[in-house]
Design a protein that fits this description.
- The complex is a heterodimer.
- Chain A is of the alpha+beta class.
- Chain A has two domains: about 190 residues, Periplasmic binding protein-like II (D-Maltodextrin-Binding Protein, domain 2, 3-Layer(aba) Sandwich); about 210 residues, Periplasmic binding protein-like II (D-Maltodextrin-Binding Protein, domain 2, 3-Layer(aba) Sandwich), CATH 3.40.190.
- Chain A is about 45% helix and about 15% strand.
- Chain A has a six-stranded mixed sheet. In chain A, strands 12-7-13 form a three-stranded antiparallel sheet.
- The two termini of chain A are about 45 Å apart.
- In chain B, strands 1-2 form a two-stranded antiparallel sheet.
- Chain B is an all-alpha fold.
- In chain B, helix 1 packs across helix 13, helix 3 packs parallel to helix 7 and helix 4 packs across helix 7.
- Classes of the chains: A alpha+beta, B mainly alpha.
- The interface between A and B is large, with 47 and 60 residues.
Chain lengths: ~450, ~290
């Protein structure tokens, strides 16, 4: 049995695979060298982290006994690591979360009750974000930033095609639809024929009209919302209804039937594909959120503008999504942690995030700083603000909503590739999603 | 045992201690953790619960798990023959010591040294339908990684490409161990090149072949990084290998119990396959060259 031992080792390695992801970083010391109490804060965005560092410098001046340590974990590992760390009790005192991920922690008593600790500050915060983080009547997070949806457009391209990006309306009923024709006019094949002409050949497209794709936040949920459809009822997925089917069909047709958007083979696995095309001047209209402002500003060497998101049969109903800072209920320094949370929920604490142009701040009083930063760059953010004030579409929530979304994802991808019919696909996706949210 | 022997034994164990500790902590202990997890239901956050064999029952009746066993088997069936034949061919060529052999010996091994995840990302660029190097070279648009028929062969091709150098190295070592007199004797008896290969080289390489096949099958059954970087198990589950499913269950669906049960299933599969390989080779003679 010369190879017996090798086999055993190799086979145990197979088993170890399942456990290897659980490796957990070392303990962080509670006290820094100077005897201050260390409060740790974790987030995924290294840009915003810079603004936080500066903001905490001001905080530490007023609170000389507290040392806030900012820890950036990249997005790709963030949720896996967070879950493992919460599980092992190694999580930081405060951490960023999004709406699809906080439910499980709130339901399991891992979070500090913000209503109880900081309820008096609540009125200063963006109401839509407060609503997103209220679960079973209690608020669990301090709003940090929020996103809504608007339409980025390439000024030169829309002007040449004679399209007014602010007056576009999509409708499954062709009589009421002005968007499709505009998108077709803005889509050009390699010889320069636009998609509204009979000579248009969809084989080699050099310029796309619009970013129809499996982009939940900026496209799918917004089309569904603007058609009066639903995605979720309570914590359950509810995508198998006529309005949602109709909206999804419309988006899928934009890609596979009308060819005004890149193929799903390009966008399914590369979430930045459409933004890259827009920045390269190869896409005329790009519906997205303020999270892409900086990238577009830095990389697009043409004039661009912002228009309201597309109007649908039920109006302009877009996703408002927010990021919140939540406190770990297991923190060893509750008082200090609450103090830092309170700073994170103050206009002064968020001023640098806003004035640095990073994101719409969760504290409404700081919003002007963000708007001013961009108006100095020649960008009017009103479309985002209007989208947040109008009717909005709730991003999915629930303790296991992520497990549900990952189960639905392969099916949604097939729908967008045009290989699974929309009606059947959505029925399958709903079932897969709801099976996955059960344990 | 004499005092000296005892002291030597103590020194021996002392020297072994660091690696023993490593093996115990990172290999043996996790095995038992996984075994115990496979009998529990746990999402990392809420307290774990003993559920007996429920996890095994649920994975064995899960069509996605059946699919991933099938996909993994297909992957192994593509990768192993191709990489073994190519590796042997490359070793035979390099063994002729033509000018430049040393350079190629290094070149072949480079992909095996690189991190599979990085290679996967690079290959995803190469396979990109619009801007990919491969389609640019072919002059036509082929959607490699979103095609339900091409995705698995594409991933398998990358796996072969990255492992073939490793296989080549072992065959080269095996070839070097064959005494030159045997070849001389064969030639003297009038055997041509083909006969020498089939009746001398190949039989004498059997221990190497066995080793290369066993380790190759095991690592192919466990493939994860390449798949994760290139397709994440898509499209429509066509590259959803067992290890990708384990990752999905553990860290996307947060069902640690089911993930552990799947890991145990993979372990059992590997034991069966390896035992079968061992039986096959044991029935054939191995020559002692020492």
């Amino acid at each position: 049995m010369r190879h017996g031992r090798r086999l055993f080792v190799a086979a145990t390695a197979a088993l170890a695979l399942a456990a290897s992801g659980c490796a957990i970083g070392g303990d962080q010391s509670d006290r820094s060298d100077s005897g201050k109490t260390v409060v740790t804060f974790r987030l995924w965005d290294d840009q915003v982290a810079k603004a936080y560092e500066q903001s905490f410098a001001a905080f530490e001046k007023d609170n000389p006994t507290i040392d806030v340590q900012v820890d950036v974990i990249p997005w790709n590992d963030y949720w896996t690591k967070l879950t493992a760390d919460v599980s092992s009790g190694n999580v930081s005192d405060i951490f960023w979360t999004n709406t699809s991920n906080f439910g499980i922690y709130a339901d399991n008593g891992n979070l500090i009750d913000i209503d109880k600790e900081l309820g008096d500050q609540k009125n200063a915060w963006k109401k839509s974000v407060v609503d997103l983080y209220t679960r079973d009547g209690k608020l669990w997070g301090v709003p940090q930033l929020w996103d809504s949806i608007a339409l980025f457009y390439n000024k030169k391209l829309v002007k040449e095609a004679g399209v007014d990006p602010a007056a576009l309306r999509w409708d499954p009923d062709v009589k009421n639809d002005t968007f499709l024709l505009a998108a077709k006019k803005l889509t050009l094949d390699f010889t320069g024929n636009s998609a509204d002409q009979p000579r248009f050949k969809p084989v080699k497209i050099r310029q796309y009209g619009f970013n129809a794709a499996l982009d939940s936040q900026a496209i799918v949920w917004d089309f569904v919302g603007s058609n009066g459809g639903t995605w979720q009822e309570g914590d359950e997925f509810a995508v198998n209804n006529p309005k949602t089917q109709q909206a999804t069909q419309y988006v899928v047709d934009l890609i596979n039937k009308h060819h005004v958007a890149p193929s799903a083979a390009d966008t399914n696995e590369n979430g930045d594909k459409s933004r890259d095309l827009f920045v390269q001047g190869k896409m005329a209209m790009f519906q997205s959120g303020p999270y892409n402002l900086k990238n577009i500003q830095e990389n697009a060497d043409f004039e661009w503008g912002l228009a309201p998101m597309l109007e649908g049969p039920a109006g302009r109903v877009g996703v408002v999504h927010g990021v919140a800072a939540v406190g770990s209920a297991k923190t060893k320094h509750l008082d200090e942690t609450v103090k830092v949370l309170s700073w994170l929920g103050s206009a002064e604490g968020q001023r640098l995030i806003a004035e640095g142009g990073y994101a719409f701040p969760g504290v409404t009083a700081a919003e002007k700083g963000f708007v001013d930063y961009w108006s100095k760059q020649g960008v009017d953010l009103k479309p985002f603000q209007q989208a947040a004030e109008g009717t909005t579409f709730p991003a999915p929530v629930g303790p296991r909503v992520n497990a549900g979304a990952t189960a639905m994802d392969p099916i949604m991808k097939e729908i967008f590739l045009g290989r699974t019919p929309v009606v059947k696909g959505l029925a399958d996706a709903e079932k897969a999603g709801n099976d996955a949210i059960k344990e | 045992m004499s005092r000296l022997a005892r002291r030597e034994a103590r020194t021996g164990y002392l020297l072994l201690a660091p690696s023993l500790l490593g093996v115990g902590l990172f290999l043996i202990l996790p095995v038992f953790v996984v075994l115990s997890l496979s009998l529990q239901q746990w999402n990392l956050i809420s307290p774990a619960r003993w559920v007996g064999l429920d996890n095994f029952r649920s994975i064995l009746s899960d069509p996605d798990v059946r699919n991933s066993v099938l996909v993994t088997s297909l992957f192994v069936l593509i990768v192993i023959p191709v990489q073994t034949v190519l590796g042997l061919a490359a070793a035979l060529l390099l063994n002729r010591r033509l000018p430049g052999s040393n350079l190629f010996r290094v070149v072949y091994v480079i992909p095996w040294i690189c991190a599979p995840l990085t290679l996967g990302v690079v290959w995803r660029w190469i396979f990109d339908p619009s801007d990919g190097a491969l389609n640019a070279l072919l002059g036509q648009r082929i959607e490699w990684l979103s095609s339900t028929t091409l995705a698995l062969p594409a991933v398998a091709a990358v796996a072969v490409w990255s492992q073939v150098g490793y296989v080549t190295l072992f065959f080269l070592a095996g070839l070097n161990a064959i005494p030159a007199e045997l070849y001389e004797a064969a030639r003297m008896d009038g055997a041509d090149g083909r006969r020498v290969f089939w009746h001398l080289t190949l039989p004498l390489l059997r221990p190497t072949t066995f080793f290369v096949l066993v380790t190759g099958v095991i690592s192919s059954f466990q493939v994860f990084d390449t798949v994760y970087a290139m397709t994440r198990g898509g499209p429509a589950g066509r590259t959803d290998v067992i290890a990708a499913r384990i990752y999905h269950e553990a860290f996307e669906a947060f069902r640690l119990g089911r993930a552990a049960a799947l890991a145990v299933l993979l372990f059992v599969l590997l034991v069966v396959v390896t035992l079968a390989q061992q039986l096959y080779f044991r029935r054939r003679i191995t020559y002692d060259l020492s």
